């Protein structure tokens, strides 16, 4: 392995590092930083929920004036269709108050986004400007108390009444109430409600409807019952609540009818014949939410690391027996091992997120070539998997950073408690992570099955249940997949070979899942039993798949770096990330004979060496995200508090 | 392996299960349950910090009337000296409001406990009754902003002035302020302050002093500056704050003088000559705090699992393709794998905690035979290690339970957010977990070194720094330790052999640390560099040591079970715990050749089978802790909310 020399920390060319970290939306990043730097700093952590909600609603309205929300919408309503830019800026709101990030996400991403992509001109003209300007605040009412992950089977109904040309929206029983809905408890005037469309006694599956939920004075509309979810672990500036509908009537035109319509006489029509395909097409347009959450998680992890690494450089504990001088906690290997691999993976996910945003932009921005089903499906798969891995990474990293700052990390004034509590729900909203990884695994299985069948590996609707079972059951050759992969005594210091290690794991774990599933399905064992017994294998395969996506994005980013010094630095970060992944999974590599015991034992010392090499650059690296200083300012980092010790007192 | 048959869930003899779970302090447990059942339920999560603190102070005074705090103190002040009982009852407060648990721990465990064990008759007579009755609220002021883990080197001074027969307590610079001190910001009238004792210009090391911090009206005493830590991640019913002293004068008699005294003329005397030994003897008497925190963490983990398992039985997601019926989430393997191994380890730690409490009681209860240095040292080692493992287990388990309940788990009304936030600091207070494990590892090394030297393996003062280096450096035979252990193709289904697997890991990891340290120390490499490079090995060895303690306690508990059905059930729980540990560490077993690849691959299916076997007993098991129903009642478990679905709406 030829490795470049890393210049001294003060000789790293800042502009070159900035360019690679900021990537394609550098302008948007800079603008957002300036806005964050110019606005109010930290929210008082002792606000009541009512006060906090009022504060965030005000902040939301201020955000409107930045013009950023508008820029993401279509030119037809005055926007720039800068889908990628708006998601990039959104993620950076994680440097500030996460309640504002989520409130903005609900208002413009979910509510406004649904009107944009599921509605047609009539909805755009009537509502979008008011949504963008924050004049019409709204909800995205998909999740039900009884059906969160299983959206296709939610129970709210919208039954067409041809006599009145109206839909009747109804909550049939308490568990079918819309729940955890942002903007519901206080501010929302209107909701995009997902409900089973019924016309002429026929069910047509889940569709989205615009339902007014409050009148101008803020009182619930007749038939609408609004609940308040009250205090939450975090995000208490967001007014989450429930919505129930008792035969609420809305005009026929309130169906968001881009993918299906109901004529005055109740005739149903859709350009997509298959109900499941239609459902997933509608859902697919909403992929932006998941990608935004992954981005927000990344921003929060970056901020937590910036706080913990700055603290770790200041905080000293125990004297060096040779010198008598107290040692900065970041100089302890155990402390480095907590923070530096997490930092490396945060970089990896940063580049992965940038790629994901660019791919979404290529498909969704106005004027883009119509997305093939294949591109759309791959984007959705990636978004599901990356969202799961990025949010778990954030939860784990922020927890680690809190612990790394000890008692100081437990005080709200030092910002880590808020980061932890606010982002905690990211692992279970916009798709529960475990469910998302299972869905990804099933998609990978289906693609695999179709490839083997020589069909189109990426048809529009995912194969579910019986169909997937069918595809898998007919195959017998799966076991041979692993053996076809090239493999031989991998050198852990070689980038290409480490990549192969990750790829081998991706392919082998998928093959293992196929091997576990196929015989039982062929034998006719019932599907729940078969898939349930293989859940662990499916989750492993999905995670291994995401690991390769992340590695690829980081490697691609390295290839774009022109400055040799910056490249040398980021190569070490890349090395640390990839070796940490292999180290985490080394039991698998040993079990499958992909690593020898000696190779496996060499992983941890390699990680230790990389930690030591990167230790002097820890600050350079977290500073590369250029989180505005006012958003990091807190008592535990106040330099006056670290004034030199009076030597007399020592 | 002969395994008993587990009776059907409704045939498990409740009394027999209760007896084994309740253990030696069954009476105390029952009484505490009744008190928890009879008192107020959940605290309003939207209280301001000021309101919450007032609420908890009231609750603390109510607790006094239960007589429980008194029971832990010596008969000389009217108590029963039921040290074990009071720690057991304390841990169960985790079923209720954790702010009350911590406030009670500060008042009676830390403040009162320090007066009891570090003070003498004059302090007992003057203060203990008022402390027990909650009339004199106080602080335990050990931690400084600049010195948390490294207590021996804290910087507050108490300088004796023979002219006035007074100590002058002083905070020499801002980072030497006492920080994160419970009872400081609002209620405390007096503090046990740990400071460097100086008399006749000679430093005598850290001692404890009684310092009044507020007058009767609640104003800071002259020279005392009190800070408020403000809002924290959790525990906002506790008034944490800082204390600084500007040449504050206290009478000579305010030195807690059990282990050292200063005569009127300033002459220093102590029955323990060595300063370090004296320091660790004083610290050792405070072991109760660490044991109490481990217990509280256990109670919180039990409650989180009770909530998540009940929810997992009610919550249904996705239909079984064969039956069309929706499946309870706890029937999914992935869900079982999240909760059931955590439940098994929670049982293991419950029995471990009971043993630890009994060992402490045997040493500390009035009338106990004077504790040998050896017993005291082993108790301290165990307490440090178990505290670290139990609190990390609680943090991880509660996080998992929150995620397992999805959106419902994020609402404060469903209790999981409070459990998570309140217990989060347990991993870093009463000793930072990473530091505790390192200390344990160094003690194990020292004992090992002494054993090899044929000296007393457990002398009173731990060997630190240079001494430890000396013991290790002189040894050359360490590498042979591992080879002397019996080992041969272990059967994973055999209890004795699995125990051997854990023991082998304990011994081998310690030997690996010795092998890594000894040559470098012999070569004279500086100590910081040598120990720092081995930190990872030290932490591994400490954790492996605790794993064997936990296994032993669980196995001993099994041996005490008389009822065959209960034993059969708990044996499966034991199996799941131990296999999960081996599974977690399987990379190490593979790397060292202790498990073959085939054996390692068989672990996860074995865990899966145990999860499936225990699934029907999940509720029986969490119910065995008999957490009062009023402390588990929350909307997500409200049976009315789970009313059967209207079939017409399906």
Polypeptide structure, described:
Mean pLDDT of chain A is 90; it is low at 456-462, 475-489 and 646-650. Chain A is of the alpha+beta class. In chain A, 52% of the residues lie in helices and 10% in strands. In chain A, the strands form 4 sheets. In chain A, strands 1, 2, 3, 5, 6 and 9 form a 6-stranded mixed beta sheet that branches. The first copy, chain A, has a 3-stranded antiparallel beta sheet with strand order 4-8-7, with no helix packed on it. Chain A has helices at residues 14-22, 26-38, 49-64, 68-71, 83-92, 98-118, 121-132, 275-284, 287-314, 333-364, 373-404, 416-423, 433-452, 465-473, 480-483, 495-523, 527-533, 535-560, 564-584, 586-591, 597-614, 618-623, and strands spanning 138-141, 157-161, 166-170, 178-181, 190-199, 202-212, 224-228, 241-245, 248-251, 261-262, 268-269, 316-319, 326-328. In chain A, helix 6 (98-118) runs antiparallel to helix 7 and helix 10 (333-364) packs across helix 18 (535-560). In chain A, a hairpin with a 6-residue loop joins strand 12 and strand 13 (326-328).
For the largest interface in this structure, which chains are involved and how many residues does each contribute? A-B, 96 and 97 residues
Mean pLDDT of chain A, as a whole number? 90
Unreliable stretches of chain A (pLDDT < 50, length at least 5) are: 456-462, 475-489, 646-650
> Approximately what portion of the residues of chain A adopt beta-strand conformation?
5-15%
Percent range of helical residues of chain A: 40-55%
Oligomer: homodimer
Q: Would you report the number of β strands of chain A?
A: 13
What spatial form of chain A do the alpha-carbon principal axes imply? globular
Q: Supply the number of helical segments of chain A.
A: 22
Kindly, what is the distance between the CA atoms of the first and last residues of chain A, rounded to a whole number of angstroms? 48 Å
Q: How many strands, which pairing sense, and closed or not: the largest β-sheet of chain A?
A: 6 strands, mixed
Provide the structure class of chain A: alpha+beta
Radius of gyration of chain A: 26 Å
